[in-house]
Input
Amino acid sequence: MNRILICNGHIVDPANQVDSIQNLLICGGKIAQIGERIEVEADRVIDAEGLIVTPGLIDMHVHLREPGFEHKETIKSGTRAAAAGGFTSVACMANTQPVADSPEVIRFIRSQAEKSGVANVFPIGSITKNLTGEEVTDVPALLEAGAVALSDDGKTVMNAALMREVLAWSAQLGFPVAVHCEEHNLNAGTVMNLGETSNRLNLPGSPNAAEDIIAARDIMLAELTGGHLHVLHVSTAGTVELVRWGKRRGVHVTAEATPHHFTLTEAAVEEHGANAKMHPPLRTEADVRAVVDGLIDGTLDAIATDHAPHAPFEKAQGMDDAPPGIVGSETCVPLVFTKLIGSGRLRLSEAIAKMTCTPAKILNIDRGTLSIGAAADVTLIDPKREVKVDPAQFESKGRNTPFRGWALRSCPVMTIRGGEVTHSVLNDG
Ligand code: DOR
Ligand code: ZN
Output
């Protein structure tokens, strides 16, 4: 049986309250042992001194684009990007072509992932058929086929009665309903945040209220039904406050923040144009501060990238016409470490929990820990390694990032999935 011994790493396994220098033994694709002294003959010994060793990271919000938009990304390239970013598991959104609104598409994604993926792929089915917001999908059939959540991400389900219906299914069958909160009529035709920058650039902007109105509605519907609401990519101070309010009331609501929303403001649009265009948009300093505060106090449970690759020619169409979204898999860990941990705002173990056991719990997947007997999904991070973001080096097909040229500190140096190395920049890798 293949044995890998990872020596002297700083093991951070929040689910098991481990946060100390230890050795980790992987045997036959499973976590076999953690301890200060492990005496076995291993096939491979990895010196992890100075490195952080975590459960394989989980990105609960990516767009893999397959089927249908393979010119933007494929399951192969998207999971390679994930592995390069330290992720061993991703949950992929339903806005493919065809939409993941049937058991067949869910099964196709799973089988493609088996064939060409280098990360565990957990498909998300759509809430409404063909993402039109008109009719709820066959919920039990999608779950049966392997969907871990339902979401119309990219679009808001505008009909509150349909949201009530799917949240009632959630209460009955126990899965998360992940919502994109942007009131469609307020949002239509907008390309950035409504504010000082949009006024100056004379671009149509979307107000914070577009997000807050839907977040408030859906939290109320989660309370009404008892369903599990997961609020995707929170971008406004108001939505942070609404999620906090919902949690205080005992509503089953979880939420995530993206690296771009906790790092950048609307000012990035001036410098990066369409590479800083996404939905929901980058907001103001006050919103960024509120998102960071929400991560610190636990209002925002998870960190997820919303990795949204688009082809260079599509992003070259300019602010008005370029599709929204930026890539995120390969810049997430450096941004989390530099902006949240390095700045002293978030404790290391809390940040790791938001990318491991917490998303696993939200999605009800058996991942995100280094428990003995668990699948050997492990990420090694060098917290001191300096990186300069160079999109040309991305494994993703997408190059659409506003972080081009940023100098960041820390980087995933080895990713192990089920005992197999899926990415490594270590000399002995
Ligand atoms: O900016 C975005 N891009 N937001 C979304 O919700 C969808 C995503 C995409 O699919 O490109
Ligand atoms: Zn998304």
Notes: The radius of gyration is 20 Å.
